[in-house]
Specification:
By secondary structure, the protein is α+β, with helices and mostly antiparallel strands. Among the domains are: about 150 residues, NAD(P)-binding Rossmann-like Domain (Rossmann fold); about 90 residues, no CATH class. The protein contains 13 helices and 22 strands. It has a seven-stranded mixed beta sheet. It has a five-stranded parallel beta sheet with strand order 12-2-1-16-22, covered by helices on one side. A three-stranded antiparallel beta sheet has the order 5-11-6. Strand 3 and strand 4 form a beta hairpin. Helix 3 runs antiparallel to helix 4. The longest helix is centred in the middle third of the chain and has 23 residues. The radius of gyration is 23 Å and the shape is globular. The protein starts with 6 loop residues before the first strand and ends with a helix.
């Protein structure tokens, strides 16, 4: 059966699905997607719960991008609900916008102090700019240092400890930089040009994305049971495979963690349905100074559903990933030691012909949704260019 397919793709999230569609559509490749779970969409999968409310099973996902190519590409497979995500932080019972901005400033300091801080921030950094907590903590001005201490202690410190299990100083700066301080009155969590939610949900989007006669799907299948490497040769169902392979799963697990397990953080989700129309004022509220969970998401804000009298929320509890059954590795713990361990696994794939690593798990990196779509499009471009160049 292995010669039936020109391409094997392991994983059915955006990475695997986009590259599969491109190779199937533009090159006419016969593609087999091997997926461990029983559904399309990877962590973007959504479904209607028993109360008829559309929920994101693996945590909230909001589409946003500055890439016209990415937006136009995904727009082939969905209409959009106009939605700009706003997040609030519960700081000792007061809800303030996150990322921390000038509106947050006005809500947490006296009028006189807030005005003084605003003038200093604008003078040094300018309006509509972004800075990291590390930048602000480096200021010598006592007012700005007081602001930095407030934001650090009330927005970053405990939340980071819950999310990552360590203090911000022990996390790669690229991680904490994803939640900037904004010198603006824009309460949107993202400032990208294109923002929205798939009007019929992510699962329907993926079903359309994968609707191509050259794409076959095999669910409930662990790729390591079908795909193996022997003497720098890939085998599929115990036969040599000469085609293209795109691997989007956890790279250490593909090699049975032979050098040790790559550290990740995982999440436990607690879903609750309440007999009220709305639970909270915005789609997400972060709990930055108390509670064992990091945030609560209320899905009706995201989807725009008008299910009267009921609403479903989800609480997120981060913890260390152990590889136990039903655990999902969500966030790579980025530091030099872990990167060097990853490189040992990556090296095992270097001598393989036409074997490509793509995505958060396979590359041990953090990617936003739009970034991985763009990475998949670029990889498809490269494969197609190489193939046509060899014709």
């Amino acid at each position: 059966m292995s010669n039936t397919y020109d391409c094997l793709v392991i994983g059915c999230g955006f990475a695997g699905s986009v590259v599969s569609r491109e190779l199937a559509e533009r090159l006419g490749k016969k593609v087999l997607i091997i997926e461990k779970r029983n559904h399309v969409g990877g962590n973007m999968y959504d479904l209607f719960n028993k109360d008829g409310i559309l929920v994101h099973k693996y945590g909230p996902h909001i589409f946003h991008t500055n890439s016209k190519r990415v937006f136009d590409y995904i727009s082939r497979f969905t209409q959009w609900r106009n939605y700009s995500h706003e997040v609030l932080a519960d700081i000792h019972g007061k809800l303030v916008p996150i990322p921390f901005n000038l509106n947050s400033l006005n809500m947490t300091f006296s009028f006189e102090k807030a005005e003084r801080l605003k003038k200093k921030l604008v003078s040094i950094y300018g309006m509509n700019t972004r800075l990291t907590i590390a930048q602000l903590r480096g200021e010598i001005d006592p007012d700005l240092r007081e602001l930095a201490d407030f934001v650090y202690n009330n927005v970053f410190l405990y939340y980071t400890q819950k999310q990552w299990g360590v203090t911000p100083e022990n996390i790669d700066p690229s991680v904490t930089a994803r939640v900037p301080i904004l010198i603006s009155q824009d309460n949107r969590y993202f400032q990208d040009k294109y923002q929205g939610m798939p009007s019929d949900g992510y699962t329907v989007l993926f079903e359309k994305l994968l609707d191509n006669p050259n794409i076959n799907l095999r669910f409930n299948t662990d790729a390591s049971k079908l795909v193996s490497i022997k003497e720098n040769q890939v085998f599929f169902e115990d036969k040599p495979f000469k085609g293209t392979i795109i691997y989007t799963g956890a790279l250490d697990e593909f090699f049975d963690c032979k050098f040790g397990r790559l550290p990740y953080r995982t999440l436990d989700f607690l879903f609750e349905t309440h007999d009220i129309a709305r639970y909270q004022p915005k789609g997400t509220v972060n709990y930055t100074v108390d509670q064992p969970f990091t945030r609560i998401t209320e899905f009706k804000h995201l989807t725009g559903q008008n299910v009267s009298g009921k609403t479903t929320i989800m609480k997120e509890y981060p913890k260390a990933y152990t590889g136990a059954e039903n655990e999902i590795p969500y966030y790579a713990i980025l530091n030099e030691e872990n990167f060097q361990l990853y490189k040992k696994y990556e090296q095992l794939t270097k001598e393989l012909s036409d074997f490509h690593l793509l995505g958060r798990l396979a590359e041990y990196k953090y990617y936003n949704m739009d970034s991985i779509i763009e990475r998949a499009l670029i990889l498809a471009d490269e494969i197609i260019c190489d193939e046509k160049g060899n014709d």
